[in-house]
Give the backbone structure.
Amino acid sequence: MKKTSKRGTLQEWASQITSLRERLKINQAELARRMQCSAMTISRWERGLLQPSAEHFIQLGNLGSKSDAWFFWEMAGVQASKMIDSLSGSAHNRRLLGVAPLEKAHAGARALHPGKVPDRVGLPLLKAVIGSHGVQGDRRSSLRKIPATEIISAPAVWCPNPSYTSLLRVKGNSMAPLIREGDILAVDSFQTERTELYGKIVLAVNEKKGISVSHLRHYGNLDVLEAESRQYEPVVLNKASGWRIMGRVLWWISAAP
């Protein structure tokens, strides 16, 4: 388990553990019993003083709903694409991996005309801001727990994984002139495998700096997050830096000049 410093703002994963326990209607001692750890450990998780291990995040996901599961599994480093591939032979397992309805307010498109093969889908514009190099974005561990403020229609052919696609607004100009402050980005959180995203624009997240948009480059043995503007220092993407990929930017909407 990873120790964390005490901060004024509670870590998102800490508040999600408390929310999960409260939805299960159990106390810390009972959650500790199910997790095979001490009640003190649960208390430290919920206060953000100790981060659960990957194994414990997976266990927490197994206790909750579909949206709970994906939040905690993503914290454990589980990739949706790999999990679905491994379970693709079972229709029951595919249903277990589905995304909860948009009315429950998290990422994922819905068909505008249920029951038909859609030519357009409704994408949720999430209530969160993507930062850029030099500008902090919202501190969110996963897109799946972010409320949607409105639904924007988009062609279905633009969204290869519509259930994992959502929209977020950008803050900062380090990706200008390609992407500017105020632009709305469509992000596919199904696509997180680094080796398949080299040369692409991605969303990455860091516990301290929040969500950010960057180019993902590969140089020798290094994966690097780079801004469009060369005045910003690149960031090496590794465990020490604390950054991880949240998804691929598919396309974006720019405001008229």
Remarks:
- The longest helix spans residues 12-24.
- The chain has two domains: 2-78, 102-253.
- The first strand starts at residue 2 and ends at 3.
- The two ends are 49 Å apart (CA to CA).
